[in-house]
Design goal:
Layout: H1 3-31, H2 41-63, H3 65-70, H4 72-89, E1 91-93, E2 96-102, E3 105-107, H5 109-126, H6 134-153, H7 158-175, H8 179-191, H9 193-199, H10 202-212, H11 223-234, H12 246-249, H13 261-294, H14 298-322, H15 340-361
Antiparallel strand pairs: 1-2, 2-3
Length: 363
């Protein structure tokens, strides 16, 4: 490998994430087109966040993933402290207490907790042999994950808390954990469902009931998903055209600039725009897997695995809930949904992926 191979990879990766983000701005502007004084402002704010995110991305690539692994435990502890502060001092919006304010700015520690957990797990597992005291390693990794999961669930943020589980399992699989430990985890998870059900808020239970039977409450818990499916279906092959979506413009789909922005893509851009999005994400994953294949560092491989798992399940769950194949959980669509904390988290993650490739390409 050489400087040339890294340069090609870097620019390919950079252009793909920039393309996804700008393509998202295109539809975000449409989603906020008729929001009175907010018309166009959401898209402008998101563009500023993308510019900041790109600078952070470049900074992470320059610093290198090993520097972040070296302070991963510190970042993990700081994240836990912030999650506790959210429960005590956090600002409540839409029935959830997830935001902390620093002057005029607000952020969600739960978003950054995902990358902090991935870094800590990568550092811990990467420095320990998979065949020595494996059950102990497995349990410690599980505890490291379950602590922030419970804190995030208490906010409450069911979607973000559940995303920790597939991240952990994917990283343990790549690390080489034995199958019996995965089966043990599945049994433990199933046996804990009654307890977890008791922790859910009434609206979260309603969402799960609505997922099982969408016609159970068509004007309540099922309303958003039903309208989202109508919006996407009405887009047809070519879509209704930019700024021409009726389901979203008339507010039949709530939160269509955040969690349900995919309904805007489907309605206004149609099947063609959906295919473009999928192709961009497929290319993103193809480049991401190159980082795994090119590194011999176990910690780097685990870090890349955790990041890919995080991005994949965000996409899978978000799109799944907009078309009724997954329960509504509130997970944003990477680089596209409106929001600063999630956007910055993904840019940090992508910077780490590029730095993993860089470490093996430049000597």
């Amino acid at each position: 490998m050489s400087q040339t191979s890294f340069t090609r990879f870097y620019w390919s990766f950079f252009l793909v994430i920039l393309g996804i983000a700008l393509w998202g701005i295109f539809f975000l502007y449409s989603a906020s087109y008729n929001i009175g004084s907010e018309q166009g402002m959401l898209a402008l704010r998101q563009m500023v966040r993308i510019a900041v995110g790109l600078m952070v991305f470049l900074g992470v690539v320059s610093i290198g993933y090993k520097s972040f692994l070296n302070i991963s435990y510190v970042l993990y502890v700081v994240t836990l402290i912030l999650l506790i502060m959210v429960l005590v001092f956090g600002t409540r919006r839409y029935g959830a207490q997830r935001w902390l304010y620093v002057g005029p700015f607000s952020f969600q520690p739960s978003e950054f907790s995902k990358i902090a957990v991935i870094l800590a797990l990568s550092h811990y597992l990467g420095r320990r042999k998979k065949n020595l005291y494996q059950i102990r390693r497995f349990i410690i990794a599980f505890i490291m994950t379950i602590v922030p999961l419970v804190l995030v669930l208490k906010e409450p943020d069911l979607g973000t808390s559940l995303i920790f589980i597939p991240i952990l399992l994917c990283m343990l699989y790549v690390w080489g954990a034995k199958l019996k430990y995965f089966l043990m985890t599945i049994v433990l998870g199933l046996s804990s469902l009654p307890f977890l059900w008791m922790l859910l808020k009434p609206y979260q239970k309603d969402r799960l009931f609505a997922f099982i039977d969408p016609n159970r409450d068509p004007l309540g818990a099922s309303y958003t998903v039903i309208q989202s499916k109508i919006a996407i279906g009405s887009g047809g092959f070519l879509g209704k055209g930019w700024l021409q979506g009726t389901q979203n413009k008339l507010y039949f789909v709530p939160e269509h600039h955040t969690d349900f922005i995919f309904s805007v893509v489907g309605e206004e851009g149609g099947f063609i725009s959906i295919v473009v999005f999928f192709l961009l994400f497929v290319l993103l994953f193809r480049l991401s897997f190159m980082a795994i294949r090119r590194t011999t560092d176990v910690s780097g491989k685990l870090l890349a695995t955790g990041i890919i798992a995080m991005v994949f399940f965000h996409i899978f769950i978000n799109i799944g809930m907009t078309i009724g194949l997954m329960p509504v959980t509130g997970l944003p669509l990477p680089l596209i949904s409106y929001g600063g904390s999630s956007l910055l988290t993904f840019f940090i993650s992508f910077g780490l992926l590029v730095s993993i490739f860089k470490e093996r390409s430049i000597f």
